[in-house]
Fold this protein.
Amino acid sequence: MRKTRLALIIPPVVMHQFRDTGMKNSLPNMGIAYLAANVDPERVEVIVLDCPVERITIEKLLKRLLEYKPDIAGLTANTFQINEAAITAAAIKKEMPDVTTLIGGYHTTPVPVETLKRFPSFDIAVYGEGEHTLQDLINTLAGSGSLSSVKGVCYRENGEITLNPPRPLITDMDSLAYPAFQLMPMTKYRGFYTLFLFRTRVGMVSTARGCPHQCAFCYKITGSHYRIRSIDSVVEEIKRDIRDFKFDLLLITDETFALQKNRARIFCEKLLQDGISKKFKWICQSRVDCVDLELLMLMKKAGCRVISYGIDSGNQEILDKIKKNMTLETAMNAIRWTKQAGINADTNFILGLPYETRRTIMDTINFALKLDSHTASFAILTPFPGTEVAEMAKKGIGGLKLLTDDYSKYGKQVGGALELKNIPRKELEKYQRSAYLRFFLRPSKFFRLFVVVDISMLFLMLWHTIRSCLKSDKRVTAEDNNLQEKK
C-alpha cells in the first residue's frame, strides 16, 4: 500500500510581518511539530518545510515540492500571515493541481468558513486541535470515505462550503507523541532574549493546553479547558531534546505556566531531582496572580531565566473592562518578587484597548516605567478573529474603530487594523514609539532593547520619531512666519 505523502509548510512571509510577532526570535512551529509526530508512520510519509527560517522562497518551495510529489500540502498561518499562505497555496495548485491544500492554525480555527470563502486556493480548513483530525482526514482522502464524517474540518463540495462539527478537545495529553523536531531545522532557530545576534540552541515544550481566563482581546485556540500532561512525560521529553538536539534554552509554551502552583513546584523539583536543571535554562509565561516569592525562588533554582507577564494596562478601570481579572497591586508584587528571585521579568502591554483615553494610555506607559521590569513590549490592540474585541470593533463598542479587513495589516507591532474613535491610528503609533523609547532609553535598560526588539524595528521607530519631530518643527516655523506676516 502506497503511503500518503504529506508536506507540512510554514509559508514564506514578508520581512515586516515576520518581525511582527513582537519579539526578536525564530522558533520551531509547535503545532506543525505535533502534527508531524502524530500521523501514522505506516500510512504517511511527512516532510516539514519552514520557509522563513530556511529562507525558502515560493520558487524554491515549488522546486522542493515537485521533487517530493506530495498528495497533501498542509499550511499554517497566523492572521497576519494568512494572505501569504493563500498565495503559496495558489502557487502550489497551479504547479500541482491534484495536490490537496489544507490550511490550519491560529487564524483558521475561529473562522474556517470565512477562510475558505475568502481564499479559494485552500481546499480544506482544519480547525481546533489538529493531531487526530489530520490523521482522520488523511485516511478519508486516501480511501473512499466521505469528508462529511471528519470532525473538525471545513471543506468545499459541489461549489458549496460545508462546516463539519468540531472535534472534542484531546483530554489524554500523554497520548500524543513528542513533537517531531527531527524534521525541522533545529540548528537555525534563535530564541527569545538573546543579545544582538548571539544564537542559542532553542527548544520548546508544552506541559499543558488551554486557559480558563476570558480576556476580551485573546482567542484561545486550545480552548478554555485546562488540560495537563504528567510531569514525568514532560521531563522525559526534555531529556530527549537535550540528548538529540542539544538545546540550551527551553521555551515552555503554556499560556499560563504556573496556573496550578503545586504542579509548577513538582515540575521544578523533578528537574532538580533528575539533575537536568543545570543543563539548560528555561523561559515561561505566567499571570501575575499565579506566582509567589517561594515558587519563584524554586523556579530560579530549577533554571528559570525569564518569565513573561501579560500586564496589558496600567489603568485598573481598563483592566476590569477587558475582563483581565487582576489588579495593579498584584502586578507590582509579582514583578518585585520575580526580580527578588533573580529571574528576568518581561512585561507586555497593549495600547488602544476598549474605552481607552489619552489619559489611560499614559497611565499604562507610566505604570510600565514604575514597574521597572527588565524588558517590556508595547503592542497596539489588534482585533483578531474570534475575539470579543473583534466583535466590539465591528459594532463600534468601547470607542473601537475597525480600519480594514486586510489581514496583512493585523500586526501587533507593525499594522493598521484598528484605532479609537477619539485617538487616530497615527497617534496610537506615536504613543507606542514613545513607550518604547521612554522605557529603553534609560541607562539601565538601553542594551536590553536589543534583547527583545529586532534592530531594524528599532531604527524604524527612531526614524519615525525624528521625522515627526522635523514635521513638527516645520509646522512651528510656518506658524511663526504666518504670525510675522500678520504683524
Remarks:
- The two ends are 93 Å apart (CA to CA).
- The CA atoms of residues 4 and 44 lie 5 Å apart.
